[in-house]
Amino acid sequence: MESSPHPFIAQPNRTLIRLSIPVLVSLTAEPITALVDTAFISSMGVVPLAALGVGTTALSSLFWMFGFLGVGAQTEIAQLFGRGKKDQAGGILSLTLLLSALAGLLIILAISPTAEGLTRVLGASGAVQANAIRYTRIRLFGAPAVLLILTISGALRGIQDMRTPLWIALGVNGLNIVLDWLLIFGIGPFPALGVEGSALASTISQWFGALLGLVLVTQKIKPSRKFQLRETLKILRIGGDMFIRTGMLNLFLIYTTRAANQISPNSGAAHQVLRQMWVFTALALDAFAATVQSLVGFFIGRGSVPNAKFVVKIALAWSLGTGIALSALMAAGQGFVIRHLVPASAAAVFIPAWLVSTLSQPLNSIAFLTDGVHLGTGDYGFLRNAVLTSSLIGILGLWLLERNGTSTLYWIWILITVWIVLRGAIGLLRIWPGIGNSPFRLDDDSSLQPE
């Protein structure tokens, strides 16, 4: 196939960083907002903070379950881009946008009546549960907008446009922070709504982002109603694998939140801060994964497995270095986090678990990067099985802790680290030496294919 050389081949490090920095900023914008949100709510006490943790865990889990729409759009469009068929991306965009809107409506209809039971499953009771229910029901109205933004961002990254999702993310999260301040504390004419104000701020800002995103993405990729049944079935098959993968991933994380809340309100509050920081660092590392997904998808679409492996080698070094840097930053910032985010009564249980999370960052970098690699090749069945295996082992470990009466926040975070290590190790083995029917077994990686 005659095509122009990709800049990654000539300048791999420069190209990777150029593409990754906008992704890094856009991905970390949301957890920064969540940390600001956590700091605002933390000033109101342990009960509102624990309720925020329950509500955000429940909703992020639900939204991640349908994240396959953005993932599928990114990989499919990236591979079309690699084949020189960008003009066919409009059908994939239209299909995934339609499915996102329908999935968001389904979430509202299915979850709103069951919010009480959902928060109870997460270990909430009494005042914590009452606040969590109100938060969840308000946030649910933003579900279609959240899924539309995920899909729009995935489609744009599929054509290696990393800047437009950045502007969308900055707009959404900037508005969210301002509305948080106004609605949580009741500034000026606005009533002080507390946890409910946080939920309302998120919902309004997400709809703003979805509408902005629709305008911007349709300028880059012309929508088309000419998508075929086989394309719909392919996205739904991707959804089946990714639904199981994300479901097991979320089940494990939900179990950790439940275990923390059942120990004590202080453990629940400390776990909320740890979880938000973990999400923040995870998404920072995921910037390389999202970029690698597009680059690997592009080269797989072009039929160049050696070049896809070259992407992995370069990105793995950068991701691992970033993980080490994050560990150093977390160690240096422990005092700041405790002073500004952790209630005084929860500090004692927070510190040992924070140490575990700090040391695990280089391991996280490997797990997240390999996820991006296998998403780029479209190896969804493998990702499903890898997360299924590691999550079942992690859930078994949590269950044994509870049965033995040794459940503490420290041991919960030890098991989270084991879970990450398993995912990263399995992901690497799929690339080198290429276990199973790995796409990376097809070509030797000793040299690059000419572009």
Please, how many domains?
1
Unreliable parts = none
Cα-atom Rg, whole angstroms?
21 Å
Class per helix and strand makeup: mainly alpha
Global outline:
globular
What gap, in angstroms, lies between the N and C termini? 9 Å
Largest sheet: none
E-strand count = 0
What would the average pLDDT be, to the nearest integer?
90
Q: How do the SSEs run, as a string of H and E?
A: HHHHHHHHHHHHHHHHHH
Share of β-strand residues? under 5%
The level of helicity is over 70%
Number of continuous helical runs: 18
Characterization of the model:
The protein is an all-alpha fold. It has one domain (7-441). It has 18 helices and no strands. It has helices at residues 7-10, 12-42, 46-65, 68-82, 89-111, 115-121, 126-139, 143-158, 163-185, 195-220, 229-263, 265-302, 305-332, 334-341, 347-359, 361-377, 380-404, 409-431. It is globular, with a radius of gyration of 21 Å.
List the helices and strands and how they pair.
Blueprint: H1 7-10, H2 12-42, H3 46-65, H4 68-82, H5 89-111, H6 115-121, H7 126-139, H8 143-158, H9 163-185, H10 195-220, H11 229-263, H12 265-302, H13 305-332, H14 334-341, H15 347-359, H16 361-377, H17 380-404, H18 409-431
Helix pairs in contact: 2-9, 2-12, 3-7, 3-11, 3-12, 4-5, 4-8, 4-11, 4-12, 5-8, 6-7, 7-10, 8-10, 9-10, 11-12, 11-17, 11-18, 12-13, 12-15, 12-16, 13-15, 13-16, 15-18, 16-18, 17-18
